[in-house]
């Protein structure tokens, strides 16, 4: 059970006890009237007094006890309170001892009246109480001393009643706001508990999705590495072996092509091992990106007999390993595509270091193609431009391809310039 529910239960119990007090006060006042006898105070006959008591009893029973739902109807409660004041005045007219019953009028001031009307109601009850304290309505026309005493008692009763009622209003408002805050806090706690439960489920779901994404990303990485390393290496080996067969009558050329094929096999094997271990590409080991690209361009040019050059602009700063590896693999794939499809006579690579970006442009003067049509590589397991684009996009980069039949091809990879020092 929450604190708010306990507070509401205690409040309901206190309200039930308060509802009994008017009946107790009415009965007690009647007993004192019967026991007092004739003590020299103005009083009416017992029949009139008993009739007034029964009328007050019936008014309380009908308006409060038998119809508790009327407490939520402000106009009905105003009628009840006005009638109660009239009955209190009637009882005090019958006998001043009913001033003890008059005090119960304060119990209804805070429950049946609203706003500033509570102060007016408390003042009215105080006036009737002051009348009972001077001995009833019959003494109002007595000597001047009695009138002065009445005015003093009236001021005292009204001052006390209005002050206490005002404080009660403040406490009631504070209690209502506190109860509302506790209720809102309980609702917030319930919502927070529900959100935590939901977040736990989402967290478990995200873990499953993260595992699946990790597996898929690793598959894509391995697919790219196999294409970049094994496929390109095997293609180069096949090309060199075919050239060796054609140069069978020239021993020096044949030997050169066989040595090149042997070196390509060794390099491909080393790169395959590095790919499995997720290490940096071999050309980047102990070398800067421009130096590694220059080595790749020089080796490719020597193997294929095509003029190729690398131009570097800007200040070459060390980048994150993932970014440098992506640019190197992009250059290798672009050169492999030139060798397979372009029939180019010249290739130019430009590596540009800018403040926030690094770009790699690869241009050739080969046959070109129409980028609007999907190109199918002529070797089994072709990966092509899709591999480059996927690899660049994984590091938040972009890849643009410009080409047209007979006018060569230009490939531009643009990646964030995340430097090693800045990342640290």
TrEMBL record:
The keyword NADP does not apply. CDD domains: HATPase_UhpB-NarQ-NarX-like. Pfam families: HATPase_c, HisKA_3. Its EC number is 2.7.13.3. The chain crosses the membrane at residues 20-39, 45-64, 76-98, 118-140, 147-169. Residues 327-419 form the Histidine kinase domain. It catalyses: ATP + protein L-histidine = ADP + protein N-phospho-L-histidine. One of its GO terms (molecular function) is phosphorelay sensor kinase activity. The keyword Metal-binding applies. Its main location: cytoplasm. It is found in: Cytoplasm. Its cofactor is [4Fe-4S] cluster. GO terms for cellular component: cytoplasm; membrane. Keywords: 4Fe-4S, Cytoplasm, Iron, Iron-sulfur, Kinase, Membrane, Metal-binding, Transferase, Transmembrane, Transmembrane helix, Two-component regulatory system. Member of the two-component regulatory system NreB/NreC involved in the control of dissimilatory nitrate/nitrite reduction in response to oxygen. NreB functions as a direct oxygen sensor histidine kinase which is autophosphorylated, in the absence of oxygen, probably at the conserved histidine residue, and transfers its phosphate group probably to a conserved aspartate residue of NreC. NreB/NreC activates the expression of the nitrate (narGHJI) and nitrite (nir) reductase operons, as well as the putative nitrate transporter gene narT. PANTHER family: NITRATE/NITRITE SENSOR PROTEIN NARX-RELATED, SENSORY TRANSDUCTION HISTIDINE KINASE. This is Oxygen sensor histidine kinase NreB. It comes from Actinoplanes auranticolor. The lineage of its organism: Bacteria, Bacillati, Actinomycetota, Actinomycetes, Micromonosporales.
């Amino acid at each position: 059970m929450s604190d708010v529910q306990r507070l509401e239960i205690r409040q309901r119990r206190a309200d039930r006890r308060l509802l009994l007090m008017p009946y107790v006060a009415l009965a007690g006042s009647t007993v004192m009237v019967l026991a007092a006898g004739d003590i020299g105070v103005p009083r009416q006959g017992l029949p009139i007094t008993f009739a007034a008591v029964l009328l007050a009893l019936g008014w309380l029973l009908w308006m409060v006890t038998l119809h508790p739902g009327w407490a939520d109807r402000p106009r009905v409660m105003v009628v009840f309170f006005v009638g109660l004041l009239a009955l209190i005045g009637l009882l005090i007219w019958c006998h001043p001892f009913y001033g003890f019953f008059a005090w119960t009028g304060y119990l209804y001031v805070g429950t049946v009246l609203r706003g500033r009307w509570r102060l007016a109601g408390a003042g009215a009850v105080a006036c009737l109480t002051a009348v009972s304290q001077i001995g009833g309505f019959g003494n109002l026309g007595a000597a001047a001393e009695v009138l002065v005493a009445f005015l003093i008692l009236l001021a005292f009763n009204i001052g006390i009643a209005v002050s206490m009622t005002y404080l009660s209003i403040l406490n009631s408002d504070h209690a209502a706001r506190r109860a509302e805050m506790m209720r809102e806090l309980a609702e917030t706690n319930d919502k927070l508990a529900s959100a935590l439960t939901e977040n736990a489920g989402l967290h478990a779901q995200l873990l499953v999705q993260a595992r699946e994404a990790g597996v898929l990303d690793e598959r894509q990485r391995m697919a790219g590495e196999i294409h970049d390393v094994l496929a390109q290496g095997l293609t180069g080996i096949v090309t060199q072996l075919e050239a060796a067969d054609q140069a069978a009558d020239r021993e020096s050329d044949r030997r050169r092509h066989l040595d090149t094929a042997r070196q390509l096999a060794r390099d491909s094997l080393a790169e395959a091992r590095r790919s499995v271990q997720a290490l940096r590409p071999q050309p980047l080991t102990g070398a800067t990106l421009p130096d590694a690209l220059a080595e790749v361009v020089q080796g490719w040019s020597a193997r294929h007999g095509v003029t190729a050059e690398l131009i570097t602009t800007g200040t070459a700063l060390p980048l994150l390993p993932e970014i440098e590896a992506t640019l190197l693999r992009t250059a290798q794939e672009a050169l492999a595509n030139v060798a397979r499809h372009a029939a180019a006579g010249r290739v130019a690579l430009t590596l540009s270091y800018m403040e926030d970006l690094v770009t790699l442009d690869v241009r050739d003067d080969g046959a070109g193609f129409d980028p609007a049509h999907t190109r199918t590589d002529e070797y089994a397991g072709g990966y092509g431009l899709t591999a480059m684009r996927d690899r660049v996009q994984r590091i938040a980069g972009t890849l643009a391809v410009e080409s047209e039949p007979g006018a060569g091809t230009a490939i531009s990879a643009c990646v964030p310039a995340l430097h090693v020092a800045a990342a640290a």
